Amino acid sequence: MKNPPAVSAVNTAPVIELRGVHKTYRLGAHVVPALQGIDLRVYPGEMLALTGPSGSGKSTILNLAGLIDSPDAGEILLRGERVDTRDERRAALLRRDALGFVFQSFNLVPVMTVADNVDYPLFLIGVPAAERKRRVAEVLESVGLQDHAKHRPDALSGGQRQRVAIARALVKRPKLVIADEPTASLDSRTADQVLDLMRERGHAEGAAFVIATHDHRLTRRCDRIVALLDGRITETASEPTETRQ
Amino acid sequence: MNLQWLKFALLNTLRNRRRSLVTVSIAALGTASILLAGGFAIFTYDALAQSSARNTGHLIVGKPEQFTKDEATPLEHGLDDADALKAKLLADPDVRAVLPKVEFSGLISNGDKSTVMMAVGVSPDDEFAIKGPFLTIKAGEVLSGGGGGTSAASAQVMLGEALARSLSAKPGSSLTLLASTTDGALNAMDVQVKGIFSTGVPEIDKRLVYTDVLTAQKLLNTQRVSSLGVFLNRMDLTLPAQARIAAAQPQLTVQTWVDQATFYQGVKALYNRIFGALGIIIGVIVVFVVTNAMAMAIIERTREIGTLRAMGTLPGQLLRTLALEGMLLGGAGAMAGALIALATSMALYVFPVQMPPPPGRSTGYPLNVAMDPALYAITLVLMVGLAMLASAWIARKTVHLPVVNALAHT
Question: Which among A101, A109, A176 is the top mutation candidate for probing chain B, defined by the most B β-carbons within 10 Å of its own β-carbon?
Fold first, then answer.
């Protein structure tokens, strides 16, 4: 089933587009079809939730949209440019420049301070040190962690760590943020705070979010929900405008 | 290289401090072992080189046959006008002294007992002044004067310790030297024992006799000398001086001390193999330890490596930072090892340790370890380089893992 564009994205080119994407995994002698002809577009500023049971293909779509895996068939376009490449270097440079990642278990680098973790993506793309310092301070303030800049991740709570991860994903102003169960490790109050933050910062930076989740609190706040089952899109729903706002 | 990568590598080495400490300690011990063993070998080479050059002269000048053929009669291949040649050689500014040497063999007798001797005629004053205390005087004194024993009373000899014991000779004893002259006749000469010495090699002390050149020439009935030993101002002048003298005296052969130092060459070849093998073994151990430490660190960080890759870090960048971790571990170990080796080497000068006599010798020697800058530099560079290569080698698979697999690693 083709998904309609989000209300806010009408007449806008998609950030990422999956066209007829197939992906299978081989587990010994078994061939497991993970995705079977997925068509999906995500627009700038849009927050899209992928839902479905385990094995439905959520993570596979995240991996493909995040350019850390390549499809067996079909096309992936990032800002209109085909990127379904097996050229790992090119994919890495695209990820470095245009994508941000938020992981379920935060995946912060434990030996780096909060500021260094957030600084790392800017360092990778070669932003000058003074500019990096300014932007790191700015983004840490926006996630309310300016007083924890010198702390190590293990000195923070789960919610604080996820806020650091969000700051790290957004600091380079990516076009697309890939988030895998970003609230799964958080209590409900902290999860709400993190969701608010993602919406607020995402909109502020103009980043689109593709979020794999089982969390209904999260899906309710997304612009669009794509339900998956057995590697196929079964349903697409747009949330009321007031929810998005 | 951006210092940020170095900082990241340093932070990573501090993750598991105990493991890093063990790695650094083993690298330090390995480095110290290589430096101490290498320093000992270098000191030994240097001591043997000095000893050899002091014994023969830095250069030995003689007729070509002197070095290639056996003599049918004594001094058959000796030098004729040695004084004129000596004067020419002394004109070279790098030449400090030229010492003639008359080598011959024969019998030495106390009247009741005769035994074989290997004798050397030298210029006593020059010989002992130039060479320094190369013999251990056990009794009496060294030869003195310009030689010229024209009478039995003034002809003097020094005997090796074991030879003197064999002949029951003491300083002042009268002995008789018997040798073939250059024209094949048998000649005898009465001599007086001036001193008894030890070279430190019992086999040599059983046969060796020192006398002055004129006594030797008189006994052999010749004006020739076997060869001239040329002593230079410095060891490193040997090869240039050899080339100059060889060019100026094309009818003669000029050998360096190395050509005649068979013991030095043998020891050097043996030590090079022993300490070379030791160095390789220690190097392999250090590489294995660093590799093991890095392998554990990398396995533990596979997921983190996946995260960094997902964020756009290139495999080459990760490989570099992991190699830098190896460099820091190996470098810290190498520096600590160098300090240990330096401290030990200096301690040996302050608190001397005497080694037992080597096989075939009767005297021990002080244990010293050379602090050779080149050895330190090469060892440190090799240790750091090996640690870097080992780390990069062990990391190469993980940094090239598919990002999805690395992120799924538990």
Answer: A109
- ipTM of the assembly? 0.89
Nearest CB among A63, A92, A110 relative to B314 is that of A92
Helix residue spans in B118-256 (DSSP H): 124-131, 161-166, 202-205, 213-220, 238-248
- Supply the pTM of this predicted model: 0.78
Asked whether the beta carbons of residue A123 and residue B4 sit closer than 8 angstroms, the reply is yes
Q: DSSP of A148-198, one letter per residue? A: GTTS-GGGS-HHHHHHHHHHHHHTT--SEEEEESTTTTS-HHHHHHHHHHH
Q: What is the DSSP letter of B234?
A: S
Please give the Cα distance from B376 to B135 (Å, whole number). Answer: 34
Q: What are A195's two structure tokens?
A: 């969701």
Domain boundaries, chain A: 44-67+87-244
Q: Which tens digits make up the pLDDT trace of A78-99?
A: 998 998 777 889 999 999 999 9
Dihedral through CA B384, CA B385, CA B391, CA B394, nearest 10? -150
Statement: residue A33 has pLDDT above 70 = yes
Spell out the CATH class of A44-67+87-244.
alpha beta
For B43-142, list the strands marked E by DSSP.
59-62, 95-109, 114-122, 136-140
Question: Does B134 score more than 80 pLDDT?
Answer: no
